[in-house]
Structures are given as structure tokens and as C-alpha cells.
Fold this protein.
Amino acid sequence: MSQFLLRHDNSPELFQFGQINEFALTKNSSIRLNSFNDSCSEYLRFYYILDGKFDWVINNQHHTLYPADLAIILPGQELYAEKGYLEIGSLYWLNLHLNLQGKEDKNSLSKWSSISSPEFSSIKKILFFNKVPVVSRLQDAGSVFSMLRNELFNQQIGYVTRVNHLLDELLILITRKLTQQNISQRDFPQTFLNLEEALRKDLSHHWTVEEMAALGGLGTTAFSDKVKSYTGFSPMSYLINIRISEAIKLLKKPNANVTDIALDTGFYSSQHFATTFKKLTGYTPSQFRKNNT
Amino acid sequence: MPAKKTCIITIEIGTNAVRVVAFDLAGNTIASMKGSYPTFHSQPDYSEQDPEQIFITMLYVLKNLLNEHIHPQKIKVASICFSASMHSVLAIDKSGIPLGNAVIWADNRAKKEAQKLKDSPASKIIYTATGTPMHPMSPLFKIAWFKNNDKERFKLASKFIQLKTYIIHQLTGEYLIDYSLASATGLLNIHKVKWEPEALLYAGINTDKLAELVPIFASAGKLKKAYQNSLGINEDTKIIVGSSDGCLATLGAGVWDGRKATITIEDSGAVRVIGKKVLNDKKQRFFNYLLTENCYVSGGPTNSGGVIFEWFAKQFGDFKDQFDLDYTMKELIAVAAKVSAGSDGLIFLPYLLGERAPIWDANARGVYFGINIKHERQHFIRAIIEGILFEIYSIGKTLEEHCKFNSLSINGSFASIPLCAQIIADIFNKPVSISQHNYSVGIGAYLLSATEMGIFHNLDEAAKSIVLPEQYFPKKNLHGIYMKHFEIFEKLSNKLKDDFENVVKLQ
């Protein structure tokens, strides 16, 4: 397997794939000083170690990477080698142009990916929720990289579709692994507390049970059962508790507008907010505000 | 025509969850539901809860219980009675809007405020008056903390109330605090049943910053129209202020006269007695909470309950299935049961979280003592359980310096594990009965409501209606073995004080 470096701006192999900025395999057999002072970039970057041992600093945290480990560097995060140079060994890297922050640009994703928009939004959530940027022993990712390379270089019939599928495959693979390794198998209360924090941080998001379950590292059914027995509520009802409690706090502040409150706390509309609010408290939001300020 | 069915609803605002139970008038459970809410730890010593989320969760659970179990059977709700965890503080502004979250019992930010008073001559006067040990859990010190460290909040606060007071105010518009919950604030003179001026002075407030004092039977006013409508209950339903969880758990366990003590062990634990006199302990080791006139619930709390065993299970348990902590703990218990009493000379001090009664040493830490080469995994498991129960016994033993009791009533998920119940009987050398119900707080609140309705003449009679058969009897030979181990346990707990302090500096 020989080294290669494909770049979106000058490699014909990538002309069909606007989403791939760089894809490379490096076999580093000697040390070149100052060869790895990377800083941040706008791309979502993956590094997969084939052999060697690498001491890197990712997003201000030290990590040692071994073969079959995969590093995930989110757009805007910093990556550099602790010693300033790339250590001896070989690795793949792949830089993807994906809009992970803000509202996704539906067109750009649907151009190449078969991941549905809600599933992609869950994947984004999980990538950002994740605090540990290294996934260890992910051999399957290695296989994806090697197939990706074959497809791009051989360009047999159907290769465009295959490449796009492999990218989807990689994203899903990583996301699933992240949800599993994030979770302490022994401590559901702690897991739930982390999840609750994630919900509060992004209350205006229209969370689905699948997303919450993924953050909790469980399948949807097992997750719902766990939450029900732990909190007494279904995941959605629990979320409504948080939404209404936050809304009450905002309603007690005189200047916030009711529609804004509704949207900020994750209701679809002020109508949806008013109905849910009244059902639970007996007051409409505006009556409630009048009685409490 | 058959008489219309009537029920009594109790609402327990606990540390992790609100539990709503509906009882028929004879005290049988019709339905029970719970809903949990989180505790936030934004800094190491902080434990806070969101009053709005607790209110909404309470409302949601109450509504579900009514809609699923009460209204379909056309049962009339005679009364709703409240209980709550002790020691919470919530600052509210002049419009009644919370200034931040509520600070709950587990919050230790007021360590300095507590220590300062403990070291001063006023300590004796205030303990004698309030019956509450000098500990950061006390609202007295939390309010003093606001005064010293959060001047903005202290200045804006028109009142410092309890979570239960807030919930009741949402429902009825009244600011009330019952004698029992008030007696856990460190601010109430439990002899005169009035706010204690010395304590108020230390907290830096006057009485208009506190809710109105009322007896536990008091009506909390009428439910607001909107809630009558949304809950589907009418204005005849009495809202009863109720009491604290600790007092009601004691009442609900049928403990009324001084001859019986109650042991509660959930995450944390307590040993309590009810009596007509305040235990004025020279070393200020016990709390004394006022239930009704001239009736005090006294005892000592511990940090080291089921939470210690759970910690052990998480670290060293055998996990086959995801998240099945309950199963893992059951397995550990089964292993422990096969080891002989005393764990072959292995002793465990369970003070992972520091300790309250009887040593009152926040720096205390956990210790395994006496390990030899023959000790195996199962000894460590049993020693953990015995250590937790030795700590309970050390509270009981100190209590007996003031009042003797000859039997025990136990409740709480950890204490009611059969192995634990038997070890308690053996260590204390007293017969043990177990409350069958998981919610003796709810039973206590039912007894209170039923007494208010005239079903019982008084709480004395109500408590006597709880008859618990004695289920576990002490084995004399084992008691002797345990006492030999306890002697070492007790000595170590006191002897290590300096070393605890030193090791904490490294942590």
C-alpha cells in the first residue's frame, strides 16, 4: 500500500466529491522537525492510525494514539503533535466539509449522503456531545478507509455511489461507537444527569427519543424503559417537564415575548406551548404571567 | 346507595423525586406514583434544585394519578397532605419569584458559617433553644452564607422559604411553614415554638423574612381556581400543610413512645425516637424536631447509608448486563450472606462522605482495617455492610445514653434488605420489625390527615394503628462477636481524627 495525498483543489479523483477536502495515507519513516504544527480548520477531520504511536494534543487535551485508534477533530478544534513533528508510523486522514454547526444546509448534505436529515442531526448532536475525541480499537474504520481508497483509485462502475455510501458508513460507525464508549455501563443516574444537561443546553432543539437514547448509549426501547423506571416519566414527558419549568422562569421575567419563550424552550409554536402549558397548569401562559409578576 | 368512596392524598417532596400516594380512609394504598428531578452540583460543595421543575413535576404526577386512578373510579379527594425533605432554602423576591435555585440539605457551602458559630459561646444557647446541631445543612447557616457571600441575592430576597413552602404557595397563595419543618431550620425555638432571636441575629434576618408558622394540621388555604379545574378537584378538598419527611417516617413506622426507635436507611440514614422531652446533648450530637406540641422527634443522621454500598457495587460489582445495578447489588448481598459475622476480623469505616452523628467529622474518610492474606472478595463485601450498620449502631448507642429503647422499627430500601435487618437485630441485640411499605413517609402523612379528619382521636392513637410484627430476633452469640468488632470500629473512628484531617488535605 503506497502513500497518497488527494486534495479537493488539485486531485481529479475528488472532483465528484465536494464534501471531501483531503484524503491521504502517510507512511512516515523519518522525523522531520516542525512537520506537524497543525492548528484548527473548518473541516471535520478523522485520523486513523495504522502503525506507530502518536502523542497529540487535541482540543487542549493530551492523547496517545495507537494502531486502530481513530481521532475525531471537530471544526474549529486544534490538533498538534506534542513534540512538534509527526512521529514515525503510518496513518490515514480524511477531512470532510460538513456543516456541523448551526442549521444544516439540507441541499449540500442530500447531494451525496443517504443519511436522513433527522438522523444527521442526531449524528451532529452526538459528535458534539462527545468530550473524548479518540475512539480506540475501531478496526472497522480502517476497513472503510481502505475501501474508500480502492474506490477512488480504481473508479469502477458505481464508484461514486460507493464512495458516498462509505462516508455515510464511517459517520454512522463512529457515532455508534461514541455512544457506547461515552456511557458508564454501571451508572445510569450519571448518564441521565449528563443527558439532562445536554437537553437543557439545547432546549430549543426538537429532540427525538432516538437522539436522547443515542446520547444515553442505549436502544430506544431499553432507554425509554430505563428512563420510565428511573424518573417515573417517559423521555418525552420528562423533556416537557424541563421545557415547562424553563418557560415558567422566562414568563416571570417581564420583558420576554411569549412566542420567543415558546420557541426557545422547544415548542413548535406559541399555540403548541399554550395548549401544553394550560393542560398541565390550568393557566394559559399569559394568564400565568399576569398572576405571577 | 353505597357511600361515595373517599381518599386521602399524600405528596412527599423528597430529595430525588416527588411521590404521590392515594390512600383509602382505612389506610390502604389505592395508587402511588413518582416523578424525579435532578440535583445540580455546579461546584463541589453545592447541591441545588430547581423549584419550578419540582413544582411542575409534582403537578404532573398528581394530575396523572388523579386521572388514571382517582377520577375514573369517581373517588372523592378529602385532603392533600404535604411532606418534604428538611433543610432546603429558597430566596424569593418581593413578587415571589425565586432568586436562583433552592439550596438543599446536602449542600455544604455554609461550612465556615457553621464552624464559626460552633466555636463561639452562642453555640450552646442556640443549640439548647433550637435543638439542631451546628451543621452547614441548617438553613440558619445557608442564609448566613447568602449574607456573607451573595450580597445581591441577600438584598433582593424578601423571604427565605423552604421548597415545600414554595410549592404550597404556588397552589394556594399562602406562605406557610409547619412547626416540624421550621424546627429543622436551626431558627426555631422548639420550646417556645417561636423564631429564636439569637439564631435570627446570626442569620442576619428578622421574622418577616420567614414564612408564617403553623401547626402540622393547619389548612394551607384553598386551591387556586385554575388548579381546581386542571386537576379536577373542588374547593372542599383540604390542603394540609403537613410535616417533614423525617418526622412522618417515624410516625408512619408506628413509633410513638420512647420504648421504640426507628432506623431509616436509604442513601443516607438516621436513628430516631419520639418523646416528650428534648435531648439536650452536651456534645450537641442530636437533632430534636418538633412534631406537635410537646412531642419531639430526636435522633442522629448519618451520611453513610446505601450510597456507600452502591459506590462499592459500582466499583467492584460484577456487571453482566448494562446498567443493572439492582441485580449486581443483590448478587453482592448473596455473597456477603455466606461470610460469618464480623467478616473474620475485617473492619470497615464507611465515612466516604464524611460523617454526621455521632462523630460529626466532615473530614472523616473510609477505612478497611485488619486485612490479612486470607481475606477474600466476599469479606470485603460483608465488611462494607457491617461497617454501614456499625455506624447506625454507634448513633443508637449514643442515643441510649439519653433514652433506653427495647425494640426497633426499620424502614428504607437498604435497611429492609433481610441480611441487613438480621445484622441490625444482632448488633443492637433487640428485636426488629420492618414496615412493609416502601413509603412510611406517605403512611405518616396519611395518619396525620386521618387524625385531622377525626378518624383517629390523636396521633398517639394513629401511630398505634400501625402494628408491625417483629420479624427478626437477635442471636446472642453473634451479638457478642459483633460487639468485639464494634469496639475496634468505635475506637478507630475517634482515634483517626487527626489522620483524617491530614489525608483530606491530599484529596
Summary: The mean pLDDT of chain A is 88.
